[in-house]
Amino acid sequence: MTASKEFPGAVQEVLTTGKLEIICGPMFSGKSEELIRRLRRAIIAKQRVMTFKHALDNRFSFDCVASHTGDKIDAQAIDTPERILEFVKKGGVDVIGIDEVQFFANSVVYVIDELVHSGKRVIAAGLDLDFKGIPFGPMPTLLTLADEVMKLKAICAICGKDAPFSQRLIDGKPAKYTDPIILIGAQESYQARCRTCYTIEQVPPAIQKFSWLQ
Ligand SMILES: [Zn+2]
Predict the structure, then answer these.
(1) Which CATH superfamily is domain 2-152 in?
(2) Ligand 1 centre from 202 Cα, in Å?
(3) Would residue 33 show up in a list of annotated catalytic residues for this protein?
(4) Which of 21, 33, 34, 100 is catalytic?
(5) Which of 142, 147, 156 shows the shortest CA–CA distance to 196?
(6) Which residues pair with 76 in a beta bridge?
C-alpha cells in the first residue's frame, strides 16, 4: 500500500503480483457489461487500461466492446492473442481487458499467463460453453488459472428461469450436435435457455463428447 499521486491523502493498493479475473456464462448473461463495469472503475482510479476484442467479433462496432444494454468502452480489435503483448509492451498498461476471450487461439493462455506474471491485472470475459454445451476452447484452462471467477447466468427465453446454456437455432429450429459451426445460407440465431428448455439432438455419449480427456 502506498500513497496515491492522483488521490492525495488517499491510500491506494498497488498491484505488484498480477491477477486474473474471468467473467463467464452463456450469451445474454451480461458478461461484457460486467467487464466494462470493472474496466471503468479502474479508469476512475486513474489506472492505465487497455481493452482487446477479437477482430471477428464486429457485432456492434469495430473499435469498442459493447454490451447488449448499449454500454461501451474503446477496444483494439486483434486477430492473434500475441498482439496483446505487442500493445502492452509499447505503452504503460496496468489493467488489460479482453472480451469474447473464447474466440482466441489456445495461445491466449500463454499470453495471459505472461501478463499476470509480469504484474498485470487481466480481466477476461467469455462463453464457458459452446452451443453443444461443451467447454469452449481455452476457457477451462483460464478458469482454473483464474484468481477470481464470476459465472453469470442469463434468463431462459422460454420459461424465465436461470439460463446457463446458449441455444443455437437454425431457421428457427434447435441446431443438431453435428451441425457445422458455419452453415451457409441458413438463418441463425441464439437464445439463452435453462437446462430443461435447452434442446440439442444427436448428442453422442459422454465418452465421445469429452473425448480429449481420454
Ligand atoms: Zn427454461
Answers:
(1) P-loop containing nucleotide triphosphate hydrolases (3.40.50.300)
(2) 20
(3) no
(4) 100
(5) 156
(6) 52
